[in-house]
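Exercise 7b. Backbone tokens:
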């Protein structure tokens, strides 16, 4: 499964980090370089995955067991890989995904306290070696992110969590970035959008140049 042609780019971050605000910008950068981009998200990205997303983010199953939550994330991911991500990569397209498995480590591992080795076992089973080629982690203090997110619609099943949950999510993301610093780039997302996009542009241009021109 790990043999692919296109490149796999993911964007991660906590609440209100600005993923939605920056994904279109990243997509434009890729397309301006002449790349064919498949833009998708997790949980979701397929018809079945979007149904699972509704179960995960909605309030119908408040109190869902944490193992159920983790396995639903990976069930949606298995479908997403089989139907969207792998066919696109194998066809030479680039895939730009709003969240992926780092979020399972951050939210289900860090946030909910599931043993990381159990998440790793699912990752190996479902992904069989496939990992993103590049990940942008939009990082900012919890308070700033919650203030920004609070100005939007109804909170989902994750957004109603307590401050300590989001601190654990953030520190797990930062641990991943420090451990896997070739793949994961930390973006300071607390600054104005134009400055966030300057950081993103620098990393994306360097990555695209390296991939296209060696
Ligand atoms: N999840 C999980 O637990 N495990 C997994 O494996 C996966 C996911 C894959 C999916 O939600 C949820 O699933 C997520 C983790 C969990 N938890 N939650 N919640 P999502 O990713 O779809 O939703 P989200 O995290 O809430 O992201 P979002 O809705 O896309 O928000 P955002 O991207 O973080 O922020 P935004 O909408 O771009 O910006 C928020 C506001 O801030 C907005 O008004 C912007 O105009 C403003 N903004 C953005 N940037 C700036 C700057 N730089 N300055 C000032 N204001 C700004």
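Sequence design result:
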């Amino acid at each position: 499964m790990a043999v692919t042609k296109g490149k796999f780019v993911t964007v991660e971050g906590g609440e209100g980090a600005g993923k939605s605000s920056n994904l279109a910008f990243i997509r434009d950068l890729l397309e301006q370089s002449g790349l064919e981009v498949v833009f998708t998200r997790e949980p979701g990205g397929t018809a079945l995955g979007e149904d699972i997303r509704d179960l995960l983010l909605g309030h119908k199953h408040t109190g869902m067991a944490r193992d159920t939550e983790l396995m639903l994330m990976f069930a949606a991911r298995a479908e997403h890989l089989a139907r969207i991500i792998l066919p696109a990569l194998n066809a030479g397209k680039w895939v730009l995904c709003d969240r992926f498995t780092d979020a399972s480590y951050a939210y289900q591992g860090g946030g909910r306290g599931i043993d990381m080795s159990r998440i790793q076992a699912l990752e190996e089973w479902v992904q069989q070696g496939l990992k993103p080629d590049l990940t942008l982690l939009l990082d900012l203090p919890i308070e700033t992110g919650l203030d920004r997110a609070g100005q939007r619609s109804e909170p989902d099943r994750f957004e109603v969590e307590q401050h300590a949950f989001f601190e654990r999510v953030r520190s797990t993301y930062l641990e991943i970035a420090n451990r896997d610093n070739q793949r994961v780039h930390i973006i300071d997302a607390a600054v104005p959008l134009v400055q966030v996009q300057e950081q993103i542009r620098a990393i994306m241009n360097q990555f695209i140049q390296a991939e296209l021109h060696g």
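Instructor comment: Residues 156 and 204 are 31 Å apart (CA to CA). Strands lie at 8-13, 37-41, 94-98, 134-139, 184-188.
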